[in-house]
Automatic annotation (TrEMBL):
Organism domain of life: Bacteria
Keyword terms, alphabetized: Monooxygenase, Oxidoreductase
Keyword Transcription regulation among UniProt keywords: no
A Pfam family that the UniProt record links to this protein: Bac_luciferase
Protein name: Luciferase
GO molecular function: monooxygenase activity; oxidoreductase activity, acting on paired donors, with incorporation or reduction of molecular oxygen
Entry GO terms, CC: cytosol
ATP-binding among keywords: no
Domain Luciferase-like positions: 22-310
Organism: Arthrobacter alpinus
Family annotation (InterPro entries): Bact_Lucif_Oxidored (IPR050766), LLM_Atu2307-like (IPR022290), Luciferase-like_dom (IPR011251), Luciferase-like_sf (IPR036661)
NCBIfam families cross-referenced by the UniProt entry: LLM_2I7G
Length: 352
């Protein structure tokens, strides 16, 4: 049985977006600038509904509008009151860990202590050639940069040396955090080494469950708990990031999402050698055991509850943007998530 990290009332429900390039009402592609403004509007709605977290992804390709999540989050911080703000994810491998810390400690200041960061390697590789990094160092870059970030997060003088950048001796990294610490998750797609690495630094674990069956991730959460114990470190939150869409009914949600989800899947699939997605595969992924959280508020709440209990989660983040799915459909999905799904999930968890 999975550990449960938190009481049901503490369970967090968040949203993630990559700022997918959407279509305008006339079917024309929206400019990236408008998509970014739409994301700010989506976050403001999420805050007004009392949702717990809003995460913005980082990409460097033409199907996503956001390459600088912290800038978008700073704009959101100025228009929101309560919601926690973070990345989904920050591609640490192709960034400078000290600059990442500075940007998010600055976001923490302007948002009155609401900043978080989710560190990952990213599932796309465009940032490596863009910033002049060698993809053959994929593992080494992340390992070293996470180590340096973890040092900066302690907010003392940083002394560090590695192979991927010049050494540091007693360097201070500013600004310091008002609250004393920055919540930093490590995003993991599916490798046991990554789970153990998150545990080694005592950082919370964010599982990206974007395909297959969520319950197949139970061995990872067990490994994480065991690893934390072996390192002599306290329990940490576990979160899940999964794609989904909410409609008034299951059928409406499925029909609304299908064409946009399929087009996005097939576009990325062309780069990666995947066969085109069939409707039967989509239906299976959207079924009770699949990773796609799509349907009516009742269906979605039941699915989130099942995964939360099985994996002992503290947070569930719904990745609500999908390719060209329109801004209006996303706003409706967010509204249903905040007004209906969130209370249902909390009630379900209270019942045990």
């Amino acid at each position: 049985m999975a550990h449960s990290n938190h009481e049901p009332d503490d369970f967090e429900l968040g949203l993630d977006t990559f700022g997918d390039m959407t279509l305008a009402v006339d079917g024309q592609a929206k400019p990236a600038a408008q998509v970014i403004r739409d994301v700010v509007e989506q976050a403001v709605l999420a805050d007004s509904l009392g949702l717990d977290y809003f995460g913005v992804g980082e990409h460097h390709r033409d199907d996503f509008a956001i390459s600088a999540p912290d800038m978008v989050l700073a704009a959101i911080a100025g228009q929101t009151q309560r919601i926690r703000l973070g990345s989904a994810v920050t591609v640490l491998s192709s960034d400078d860990p000290l600059r990442v810390f500075q940007r998010f400690s600055t976001l923490d200041a302007v948002s009155n202590g609401r900043a978080e960061v989710t560190l990952g390697r990213g599932s796309f590789t465009e940032s490596f050639p863009l910033f002049g990094l060698d993809l053959s160092q994929y593992e080494e870059l992340f390992e070293e940069k996470l180590e340096l970030f973890a040092e900066a997060r302690k907010q003392g003088p940083v002394t560090w040396s590695g192979k991927t950048r010049p050494a540091l001796a007693d360097q201070m990294v500013y600004p310091h955090l008002e609250s004393g610490t920055l919540k930093a998750w490590v995003a993991v797609g599916g490798s046991p080494q990554s789970v153990v690495r998150a545990a080694r630094y005592g950082l919370p674990l964010m599982l990206a469950i974007i395909g297959g069956e969520p319950l197949q991730f139970a061995p990872f959460t067990d490994l994480y708990h065991r690893a934390l114990k072996e390192f002599g470190l306290p329990e940490q939150p576990i979160g899940v990031h999964s794609p989904g869409h909410i409609g008034e009914t299951d059928e409406q949600a499925m029909e609304e999402l299908w064409p946009h989800y399929a087009a996005m899947h097939n576009r990325i699939g062309r780069d990666r050698g995947w066969p085109p997605l069939t409707r039967a595969q989509f239906n299976a992924t959207a079924g009770p055991d699949g990773a796609l959280v799509v349907g009516s508020p009742q269906t979605v709440a039941a699915k989130i509850t099942r995964v939360a209990k099985a994996l002992g989660l503290s947070r569930f983040d719904l990745k609500y943007s999908h390719g060209t799915l329109p801004h209006t459909a996303m706003l409706r999905s967010i509204e249903l998530y905040g007004t209906q799904v969130a209370p249902l999930v909390r009630a379900n968890l209270r019942q045990g």
